[in-house]
Structure formats: structure tokens, C-alpha cells
Design brief:
Radius of gyration: 23 Å
Shape: globular
Distance between the termini: 50 Å
Structural class: alpha/beta
Length: 443
């Protein structure tokens, strides 16, 4: 049997650049986040578990507030009542995609006028909940929604709306998260005239007040240029709307999708450069079209939540095959489906003890009955990794808890907040009693 491939370096890499800014090293080999040892959190709350650094979330909210006129936190990345409160206290609005996200935000006291509802297929319940709550704006994503919103409003109702347009810009880390190109489910195409037709229909409904346009070109974008192209094309449409309908739009929502590094050395979007160049492009494009500059809105989700999160796992088994060292943990695709969905790459790290062996190449896999249940392939771990060890995975704050499932009837992990040496439970672990309580069949 061939031994696992050894890396050239005699020691394990120790780059913490993608970890929360509060991360510290301990002499015993453990790490602290928010002043709390991760091994202590694993002992107290069990594994798997999500850890969220409150100070990192707040710091990133403030950075966005300083860079853009209006910022909406994209709730789909991760939402709980504490997150709602942090976002509100830092002065951000909220972007929700369902009645569920909206109801949770309202239950935490978030002001409805600072909430925007959008999504490519809003149910009548989604729309009715939004109208009843009095959300600030609804983003129209299809012709059918125009009549549906107007009908639910009734003859005397009024609602501010944006129309989501597709500017024909390809951007994003994977084809499954590129949403700015034609012939996909999101938005209304500028190229084929669908966007212009939707605008005309909205303007024909007296209950709907068209305030502006919305576009979202993809996710995990690390370059500025695609955003600039989206600005130019969307401003061009604004000019045509003015010329055709004598309506000047006052809002432009450029969406989010701002990329973050998941592993040391990964590219990241330069937020300062993005803000400066988008504002410059918007000003120049509007001047060329003789339009007033609309209020600019962005919708970061991943860029706020992901770098603030760490996932904790315990090793259950170590298996050596002819070519691979498999390290199986007590979680997997039920708590992080991103690697299976679109090839997301992570950098797990051994915590809680100091290794004594050289580094080897390993693949971290989950406990679920799928060959694709791989959390991190071809990564570096100590050669003496063994059952009972703890692994920590940084950049775990977005699209993990929010996309988690109960596959194999394994309950979803808890979410724990850390800040200034204290830890507190935000979302408890899903239990077998929780899962079985939904089953109302014969007993």
C-alpha cells in the first residue's frame, strides 16, 4: 500500500489570514476566536458547531457603511435574531427572499421600511407578508409578479418597487452562481426587451411606484470590472426609460456577490476599489446620459458573514487507501453542502493539541451516505491525525447554516456567538425530538 503523499515543507502552514481578525494562537496548539478557545467551545457545545465572531460581523458592517450610500445585508447568507439585531444596530438595511426570513426579521424588531423583498419566484404568501408588514421595497423579478402585487394591494394600496434586470454580464466563481447572464432564472433581460416590457407594465399599475432598477450579476466575484459593465448597461436602460416614459428613476441596486478568500492566497474583491470605481462609473455614465445620479445600494451577505464564522468538527475515523488519507468527521454535506454543490474549497486545521508528525496530504470527508460528501479535498493535515481530534474550518459563516439540512436525520448544528472572551448560544442544536415531532404518521 502506498503511503499518503508527504508535502515538501517539514512543518504545517500556519497562515491565519482567512480567519477572523480576533483569532489568536495558544501554546497548547489551540486557537482562540473572540477570546474563547475553540476546543473549549467544542467541549461545551459539542460538534459539529458553527462559531460566529460578533466583532468581525460588526466591523464588516461598518466598513460597508463607510464605503456605500445604502447597504442591505443579504439575509440568505445567514440569519438569526442576533444577526438581525447586529445588522440593525450597525445601520444596515435587510434584503430578504421569503416570508420566513421576513418574519424572523420582524420578530426581532427590525424596521420593515428598511427591508427589501426579492426572489425569482415569490409566493403569494411571501408578497402578502411583505405588504402587510409594510416593507420598503419589493424587487419585481417576473411579469407575473406585477399583477400579483397590484392585486394584493387593492385599488387604494401603494408599494415602492424595483425591477430586477439582467445586464448580460458573466461573473462569479462557478457557473451555478452566475446570475447576470441571459437565459437563466433570475431577472428580466435587457437584451431581449423583457426588462423594458416589465417596466412599462409596472408603470401601468397605479398601485406600484417604480423607484429604480436592481441587478445582481453573480456570487463570489473578485474583480471590479464586471460591476462597472453592469453599471453602464443598467444606466443605459434608465436613459431609455426616461426617453420612452418620461420617468427618471432615483435608485440603483447593484446587488452583492462580493468575493472573499476561503483559503490563504485566494483572491478577494477589493472593497475600497469597488466602491470608488463604481461611484465614478455611475457618475460618468449618468452624466453621459444626462441623468441625475441615482442612490446606490449594495447587498453584501457572504462578505459580511462568511469570514466571521468557523465550523468545528470532531474526527470519527481515519482511513488510508492506496492513494488517499481520508479523515472522516461528524458533520458533512448536511451542515455544509457548498463543496458538493459547486466545488467550494476550504482549509481545515487541527486544533486542541500540537501535532508531532510531519504534514501529509489528506481529504476531509463527512459522515453521510454519498460519495460526494467531501468537505475538503487534498489539503494539509498532520500525519498523526486520529479519531477524537478536533478540526476547525474558517470562513464558515455564510451559506452553511442557512443551507443546512437534516440528511440521514442528523440534526443541524448549533450557532454560537463569541465576543470579548464570552460565548453564548444563538441557535440551539436540532435534536431527534425536533425531527420526529414533524412526523405525524402512525406510531
Amino acid at each position: 500500500m502506498t503511503a499518503p503523499t508527504r508535502v515538501a515543507a517539514p512543518v504545517l502552514p500556519d497562515d491565519l489570514s482567512v480567519w477572523p481578525a480576533s483569532t489568536g494562537r495558544r501554546p497548547d496548539g489551540d486557537l482562540t476566536v473572540g477570546g474563547v478557545p475553540l476546543a473549549t467551545l467544542a467541549q461545551r457545545f459539542g460538534t459539529p458547531a458553527y462559531v460566529l465572531d460578533e466583532s468581525e460581523v460588526r466591523s464588516r458592517c461598518r466598513t460597508y457603511r463607510a464605503a456605500f450610500p445604502e447597504v442591505l445585508y443579504a439575509a440568505k447568507a445567514f440569519l438569526c435574531r442576533a444577526m438581525v439585531r447586529w445588522v440593525e444596530e450597525e445601520g444596515l438595511g435587510l434584503d430578504v427572499c421569503s416570508a420566513g426570513e421576513l418574519s424572523l426579521a420582524l420578530s426581532a424588531g427590525f424596521p420593515p421600511e428598511r427591508i427589501v423583498l426579492h426572489g425569482n419566484a415569490k409566493s403569494p404568501s411571501d408578497i402578502e407578508t411583505a405588504l402587510t408588514a409594510g416593507v420598503g421595497r419589493i424587487v419585481v423579478d417576473s411579469p407575473a409578479e406585477i399583477a400579483r402585487i397590484a392585486a394584493l394591494l387593492g385599488p387604494d394600496g401603494r408599494q415602492d418597487v424595483l425591477v430586477r434586470v439582467v445586464p448580460g454580464v458573466a461573473a462569479g466563481g462557478h457557473e451555478k452562481i452566475r446570475t447576470g447572464t441571459d437565459d437563466q432564472k433570475f431577472g428580466l433581460s435587457i437584451t431581449d426587451g423583457s426588462a423594458q416590457h416589465a417596466v412599462a407594465r409596472v408603470l401601468g399599475q397605479p398601485q406600484l411606484r417604480l423607484r429604480g432598477l436592481h441587478c445582481h450579476i453573480g456570487s463570489q466575484i473578485t474583480e471590479v470590472e464586471p460591476y462597472l459593465l453592469a453599471v453602464r448597461r443598467t444606466v443605459g436602460l434608465m436613459a431609455r426609460i426616461r426617453d420612452t416614459h418620461r420617468v427618471t428613476l432615483t435608485q440603483f441596486d447593484l446587488g452583492g456577490g462580493h468575493g472573499v478568500p476561503y483559503r490563504p492566497g485566494d483572491p478577494a474583491l477589493d472593497l475600497t476599489a469597488l466602491a470608488r470605481r463604481v461611484r465614478e462609473e455611475l457618475t460618468a455614465s449618468c452624466a453621459a446620459a444626462r441623468l441625475p445620479v441615482p442612490r446606490l445600494t449594495v447587498e453584501p451577505g457572504r462578505a459580511i458573514a462568511a469570514p466571521a464564522g468557523v465550523a468545528l468538527y470532531r474526527v470519527l475515523a481515519v482511513k488510508r487507501t492506496a492513494r488517499t488519507l481520508f479523515v472522516a468527521v461528524d458533520g458533512g454535506m448536511s451542515d455544509n453542502p457548498r463543496p458538493a454543490l459547486y466545488g467550494a474549497r476550504y482549509a481545515p486545521r487541527l486544533i486542541g493539541r500540537r501535532p508531532v508528525a510531519d504534514a501529509v496530504t489528506a481529504t476531509v470527508v463527512g459522515r453521510h451516505c454519498e460519495a460526494g460528501d467531501v468537505l475538503a479535498a487534498d489539503i494539509t493535515l498532520p500525519g498523526d491525525v486520529r479519531p477524537g481530534d478536533l478540526l476547525a474550518v474558517p470562513v464558515a459563516g455564510a451559506y452553511q447554516a442557512s443551507m443546512a439540512s437534516a440528511y440521514n436525520l442528523v440534526g443541524r448544528p448549533p450557532v454560537v456567538a463569541v465576543d470579548r472572551g464570552r460565548a453564548r448560544l444563538l441557535v440551539r442544536r436540532e435534536t431527534q425530538e425536533d425531527l420526529q415531532s414533524r412526523d405525524v404518521g402512525p406510531r
